[in-house]
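Single-chain item
Fold in token form
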Amino acid sequence: MKNLSVLAASAALSVALTACGDDSSSASNVEREEDSSSSVAEESSSSVEEIESSSEEEAPKARAATLEDLEKNYSLGEMFGTKVYLATGAKKGVFSLWIPDTAWVAFRSDFKDGVLEFGKKDKNGGWAGATAPAADSLNALLEKGAKIKIIMNEEEKLQYSINGGDFKDLEVAKVKVSDNTISDGTKLDGMSLSCAVDGKKTAYSFFEGRYLAETEDAWEAGYYDVQRSRLLMLPTFYDKPVYPLTSMTVGSDFNMLDITGKEISCESAELKYKAIDHDKLAGEWVSDVDYDWTLNLDKSGSYSIVASKGGNAELNNSGNWDVYGNILLIKNSQCTNTADCLTGIKGTVSGFDASKGFKLDHSNTEKPAMPTSWGVPQYE
């Protein structure tokens, strides 16, 4: 299967995502030229264990940090025998840890209660970089999982703790930027890029901190940001197995460079769409095309779709949903017919009226056929 991460086709994939509903592989990476996830150096393991063994000593009268408290870049000081940095970027759900010019880990987080948590069990992050002891240690941290707690102490100073360790000061870091490279992820919001790699087209659409990437035979959608002048893309919805992290450099002319330095030619355009409010789209929708259809989009992000006839359910699927701009995204985790059920479904919402319904031009091929028109339920 040709993955959407066509921009780093020469890199090795250590663990492919195959299960319906899985978010990502925790160790595989489009950018890694040599897979060492199954043989991380002993130094890597011991470094992670040292981080975990410290005792937590939270400062008195501290409060959990908020997104408003955070700058774009911080130093975490010495880790794995080198300096490690934290990037928050546009603070729209993507965070990352960096060993500059060597390796980085990017992950999704809502920063609830001042906590950043990532790892294999969370299926919310990916690793990129070169093979080196410190890089392997960072990858091992992702594999094992980590919890970073950030507080504002009584002296109005930000501090952090990793895996329950002692709190240390979080120092603001300066990162050099260039006018030749996009360093602010918000500059991609509302843009579409059509890029060519080895004769294959990939179309990228960028919404408010979210993206959709499409080729002729596959698609993926998820969270994005630009941090330390690198585009980071973390998929959450997809129709085929994907890599957990794609990372490129985007020039001010919107052309790209992949991890190997290969040039990717892109054409840019304004993305024209009418954004659909998540909470307004949430609710129960119905259709009577051939069956009695009920589509439930819960505000929590869970979804279900049922097709019944004569009181008997012919289809009953469930999973998660979200809306990026005007694109409705669905990920199935439980299906009536597992052989035909798609891992991911995307559809363009048009004509939305919360009191009437909407049209949905979707990619679902499962039978019975999912309707393209949805309305509000009627009650006696």
User: Anything to note?
Assistant: The helical segments are 42-53, 133-144, 278-281.
